[in-house]
Amino acid sequence: MPVLRSTLALAAATGLVLTPTAALAHEGEVHPGVMSAEVAAVPTVTSPNIRKIAGIPDTATISMEFARTGPYAYVSSLDSISVLDLTNPRAPVLRGTIVNALFENEAMTYGERWIDGRLTRFVIAGIDLVQASPGDPAHYNVDNGPEIAIVDVTDPARPRMRGRTKATTSTHTVQCVSQGSCRYAYTAGTRGRFSVLDLTNLDSPKELKTVASSASGPSGPNSPFSDSGAGHYWDFDGKLGWHTGSGGAQAFSVTDPKNPLRVTGTGPKARTSPYNDFILHNSMRPNAGAFKAGAPASIKNGNVLLVTEEDYLDTGEEVVCDRTGSFQTWYVPDLDGAAYRTRNTTGAMADKGTIRPLDLINPVAEYGGGLSLPVGAFCSSHWFDVHQSGIVALGSYQAGMRLIDVRTPTDLKQYGYVTGGASEVWDAYWVPKRDAEGVAIRGQKTNILYTADAVRGVEVFEVGLPGAPLAPAATAPQVAAAGLAAGAGTSGVSAGGLGAGNRVGGGLGAGSGLLLGLSALSLAGMVALSRSRSGAAPTRA
């Protein structure tokens, strides 16, 4: 595997750096010398409660992040980091791009801080296999260990490389503990530990130490991480930091971000089938401030942890979509840190928590819709975002974007979908509501939804939500697609497709086959690609 990883990383770096064209098409324009896909657009097929309103083609969109203050979003692709102006979130405009060959920065994080009387904005790129930028030719990383790079985006038209540091645990993802200052960040972690990064000096960040976490520890015997362990993501809900990975989920108090203190974790089921056959990918706990120990499981009560299990193509049977990773709800009955620390004395001991599963759903297999197929190279649940109405927007790779109704956490249902003939949705993001000062309001989202699609780029949708159906379209109504939608007149179809950003000679973006290969390397490239487990389809909790 190291030889394969190095070869792919070197190829990616070479191909991308030698092609310094910005990944995103400027304001929808076609790059010179590009064969426009508009001639043979591949349609987007949606459920009736979703309408596509905009899109910016891109070669290989991986992740996005919204600014805490200011109308901006930041897009990380395999060959660039770009700044979008969301003054009108229904019509994003590209403001600036820095060429940056990068694999993979799967969950870009944002921070801001007042420095010398000026608001400084920055994003952090997590480096797995490769990073190289003409803006920082003295530094590059080709399979040379975990590292982060800080990109200053204070001037949206001129993002620039700033600081960087190595880490001793995986930087597959890195998250700021607080966007309001981002003086400290935590890494995804590996082998039962994660790194605490000190970003006080943005030009010279450093690793402070590593901390034990069962989330990044070994999985059960049915997962390829059974001998080592891999953390994956941190989510900070305003009260706690939640760490997910092969070993389940673990929560930490981050009152002192330099010294996180474990509070609770998942029980034994978090390392067994059907809940975790690869890795618990990411999580969110809505309404954390409303938590009360022992209250009935409810999103409103702040005691439901939303989780995705990612599982794809590691043994082969996952090409059948009902055997891929699911979306799940877990009940958090208490946050008794003292009792938990008594049971988990080292911090890395698995299965010592009280958090237990409520339900799971595989929306592609159970509900389908649109251009859904029962078989695909990637149809696992992936990144998601939650709306305060109780609707989750879930990226599902080639199965598009799925809306999941979590208002009854013990009975999950599909609420809508976006599918495409050529699509690979990695993530979905509700545009935040902002106060009079332009600051994003925690837990409050609009009905405008962005998707990060590795084939189609950034796409924008408006969504009808519970109690707030879609208003009539301001422009021509969506056209029913004969032969495309299941049930004539029940789905909207809009022109979309590969987009102008799929340029000839444009690095990695032009080859969908290579995109799929890179997707597989997201996690599976770091572990053995074969394991033994039961072929039984997941069952509901």
Features:
541 residues, mainly beta, Methylamine Dehydrogenase, Chain H, six-stranded antiparallel sheet, 4 helices, 32 strands, globular, disordered C terminus
Summed up:
The N terminus and C terminus are likely disordered. Helices cover 7% and strands 37% of the residues.
* Topology, number of strands: 32
Please count the helical segments. 4
- Spatial strand order of the main sheet: 25-26-27-28-1-32
Rg from Cα:
21 Å
Which structural class do the helices and strands define?
mainly beta
Q: What count of structural domains?
A: 1
What is the average per-residue confidence, as pLDDT, rounded to a whole number?
81
Largest sheet: 6 strands, antiparallel
Unreliable stretches (pLDDT < 50, length at least 5) are: 1-40, 475-490, 495-541
Task: Provide structural commentary.
The protein has 541 residues and is mainly beta. The chain has a single domain (2-526), classed as YVTN repeat-like/Quinoprotein amine dehydrogenase (Methylamine Dehydrogenase, Chain H, 7 Propeller), CATH 2.130.10. 7% of the residues lie in helices and 37% in strands. It has helices at 2-17, 337-343, 363-366, 512-521; strands at 43-46, 50-56, 61-66, 72-77, 80-85, 93-99, 101-104, 109-115, 118-132, 140-142, 147-152, 160-166, 174-176, 184-187, 193-198, 206-212, 231-236, 240-245, 248-253, 261-265, 279-284, 304-310, 327-331, 356-361, 384-386, 391-395, 401-405, 413-420, 425-434, 440-453, 457-463, 492-495. It has a six-stranded antiparallel sheet, with no helix packed on it. A hairpin with a 3-residue loop joins β30 and β31 (457-463). It starts with a helix and ends in a 20-residue tail after the last helix.
